[in-house]
Amino acid sequence: MGMIQKTKNKKTGVKRPLKWNMIGMLVLVWLLPLALASSVMFFFGSDKLKAHLEENITISAEKAVEICEMNFSDAVGASRNASYLNVIRKGYYSYQDGSDNQGQKKRQLYNTVTNFLNDQYRYNTSFLTTMLYFTSDPDTIYYTYSNIKSGTFDRVRYFETAALNQVEEGAKDLDTDILFLNVGGNLYMVRNMMTSGFKPFAVLTMELDKSAVFKSLEGIIGYQGYEIYIDGLPIADTNISEPGSIRALYNQENTGGSRIYNFGKDNSYVYDKIRFEGHDMEFLISLESKSIMSEQSFTYVIGIFLASMIPLILLVLWFFHKEVTKPVTKLVDAAKEIEGGNLGYAMPQIGNSQELTYLGEAFNQMSAELKHQFDTIYSEELALRDAKIKALQSQINPHFLNNTLEIINWEARIKGNYKVSGMIEALSTMLEATLNRKKNAYISLAEELSYMEAYLYIVARRFEDKLEIHKDIDDTLLSVKVPRLIIQPIVENAVEHGLDDQNRIIIYITIKRQDENNLLIEIKNHGILSPKDQEKIKHLLGGEVEQGEHSLNLGIRNVDQRLKIIYGAPCGLTIHNDTEGYTVSTLTLLQQTPEEEI
C-alpha cells in the first residue's frame, strides 16, 4: 500500500500554541485594560477619573449606536428576503396566470404568502408584526405576528385602521427605497416588492420592536431616555409626557457636528448622526447627571474589585489548560499520526466533558473508516489498471488504420474515383483530429477549421445541393490558439437539426472578436427551439449525464464543459432562438489560452 499523498497549505506565519493565544487574549483584552483602569483611578485623582468616565460614556454611546445600526441593517436585510427568495413573486405570478378556478388560486396564494411570512418573520425578534398586500388587491392583508414578542392580532388590526392609508400613500413614490413611519408610537418599515421589470407589485410593512432594535442604548452609562429621528422626522421617543425635550435642549446648545457629547451638571446628553440606507438617522440620548457623578464615588470599590479579578484569571487559565489545551494537544498528535500514514490510529479518551469525549470517539471512527476506504480504493485502482491494460491491448493500432486508409485512397485515385478519394482524405483528417497523436491541448483556429471542413466535405456528399454553408470568418484570428474539436460537434448538431421546410440545410458560421479579450464563434441553423428542446438543452449544459444518451448530445456537453474548465464560467456554449427563425449556438472563449498567460 502506498503512502497517503499530503498537501500542505502555504505558511502565512508562525503558529503559536492555543494556550499562549488564550493567555495573550486575556492579557490584552482583560488584564491590560484592568491594569490601565486601576492606574488611572488610583494615581490621577478625581479629575482624571471624571475624564475617564466621560470617555467610557462616549465609547459606550458609540457602540450602542453601532449596534442599533446593525439591528436596523439586519431588519432591512431580513425584509429583502421577501424579494430575493422569490417565493412570493412566483406565487403571485401563478395567481395572475389565467382566470380558471380563481378561488382555489386565491387560497393557494394566501397559503404561499402566509407560510413564507411565518417562516421568515414570525420568530424574528426585530419584528412585532409583518403585513403585506398586493397593489392589485390592497384590501387583502397578509400578515404574521411575533410568536415570542408582544405581537398580537390587535396590532394587525391597528395597522389596518390607523397606518394602512399612510403606508399606501408613502409607497406610491417609494420605488426601491425604504420608508420609516411613526404611527401612534408604532414604528413601521415599508418597502416595495418589484417585478423583474422593476414595477412594484406588492408592499411589505414590518412593525419594528423598538425595545429590541434600540435595546443597546439602555447600556449607555447614565442612560435616561432617547429620541430617534430619520430625515428630521421622529420615529421613537421614550418621553411620552414631554416628547422632543432632548431635541429642544440640543437645539439650544448645538455647536454643529455629527457626534456631540454634553456632560453638564443639570443636563447631559449624547447626540450621534449616521447615514443609513440613504437616510440621515439621528440619536439623542439623555443621561442622568446625578447617576454619572455618583459613579466616581465607587473608585475604591472598583479598585478592590479589579484586584479580585487576578485569582479569577488564574482559575480561568488553569481550567482552560486542563479541559481544553491538553485534549486539543492529544487531538493534534493523533492527527499527525494519520498524516504520517498510520491509518486506523485510535487515540485514548480525552477530556472530561461530553463534547470532547464525542470528538475523540468520532476521530477514532473516522480514522478506522479512512483506513477502510483507502484499502478499498487501492484495490479498485489495481482492478481498474488491469482493465485499462486489457482495453489498450484490444485497440486497433492507429498507424495501421491510417496506413490502410492511405492505401484505399491511392487505389481510388488510380481508378479516377476522386469523390471517394476526397471523402477518404476528409475521413483521415477527422481521424487525425480525434487521435491527437501530437498530444496538443491547443491548436490554431485554422487547423480547427480544417477538421470542420473535412466533416462538411463528407456531409456535402450526403446532402449534395441541399446543403448550404455561409462563412464570415475574421482572417486575423486564424493563428489564435483554441482547444481541439470544439467547432465540429456544434456544426454537426446544426446539420442534424437544421432541415428547413424546403428540405434544405442552411448554416451560417461567423467567427469574430467580441471585444479585445473574447473570441466569438457563432453557428446558426434553421428552426426554432421548442420549450421541450430548450429544457433538454438546459439539461445538457447542466452537467448531468443519462445512461444511453446520444453521442452527439455528449459531444455538445463536452464542448461546454471543456471551455468552462479552461477559461472559466463566463465562457462556454449557449444555444438560443433569435428573432429571424434560427437556432443560434454561440461559443465564447478567450483569445489568449491559459498556457500563454504570464
What does this protein structure show overall?
- By secondary structure, the protein is α+β, with helices and mostly antiparallel strands.
- The chain has 16 helices and 17 strands.
- It has helices at 18-43, 45-84, 87-96, 102-121, 153-171, 210-213, 245-253, 289-294, 299-339, 354-393, 398-414, 418-435, 445-463, 488-497, 531-540, 551-567, and strands spanning 127-134, 137-145, 178-183, 186-194, 200-208, 223-230, 233-237, 259-263, 268-276, 279-287, 442-444, 467-473, 481-483, 505-513, 518-526, 572-577, 582-590.
- Strands 2-1-5-4-3 form a five-stranded antiparallel beta sheet, sandwiched between helices. A five-stranded antiparallel beta sheet has the order 7-6-10-9-8, sandwiched between helices.
- β16 (572-577) and β17 form a beta hairpin.
- α3 (87-96) packs antiparallel against α4 and α12 packs across α13 (445-463).
Main attributes of the structure:
about 600 residues, alpha+beta, 5-stranded antiparallel sheet, 16 helices, about 50% helix, disordered N terminus
